[in-house]
Amino acid sequence: MKIFLDTANLDEIRQGVALGVVDGVTTNPTLVAKEGKPFREHILQICEVVKDGVVNAEVVSTDTAGMLREAREVATWHPNIVVKVPMTQDGVRALSVLSKEGIRVNITLVFSPTQALLVAKAGAYFVSPFVGRLDDVAQDGLVLLREILEIYRAYNFRTQVLAASLRHPMHVLEAAKMGSHIGTMPFKVFEQLFQHPLTDRGLAGFLKDWEKAREVLGDILEPAATRKAAR
Ligand code: E4P
Questions:
Q1: How far apart are CA 136 and CA 138, in angstroms?
Q2: In the predicted model, what is the mean pLDDT of the chain?
Q3: Residue 34 is among the residues annotated as catalytic for this protein
């Protein structure tokens, strides 16, 4: 499963990319608004940091003509940009045109498997089911994810499933087990994936034991044997 960071914060993206396991970034109007910088420049800075990874940038028009204008513009900014368009009739109309023009579109705010069926037929590059936001209204978001994957596999749709609104490591684990193509998560959740108390305890034990035998063991970079031989 590819891992995307769901943030527009450059520091977080830099830290994630430096770890070598981040495949892309998703942004939305709320996330970019938080950063308080001009949209185009900020998205281009994210592209620079993410290098070969995909960067998702969302339109804000709600009518098809406006979405088409914004999507065509945003798509020219950088070859790694995927344009996010909301799951509305206007959005799907725009998607049908954009996909034929070769512009990659991520349909966002997907909350039902039938919405996902429609956008796959219209040629979406990514579909973004919002797992956590369904959980928020007492509906199991992971069920939605499973149903979308089942439909897409049944018809060999090429649209990639981008599990979005992942709020904790269990969401990430379940999305990965189901075979989601991508999972996008806040930086905090990404960091949680690294952690395990037994790793910390195990490492502390190894280092303590090494310290006790340090005299005999020597230094990895300057082994005792080498030092003696050199003298
Ligand atoms: C996806 O692209 C969205 O930006 C995101 O996953 C929304 O997550 P939230 O429900 O935690 O805001």
A1: 6
A2: 96
A3: no
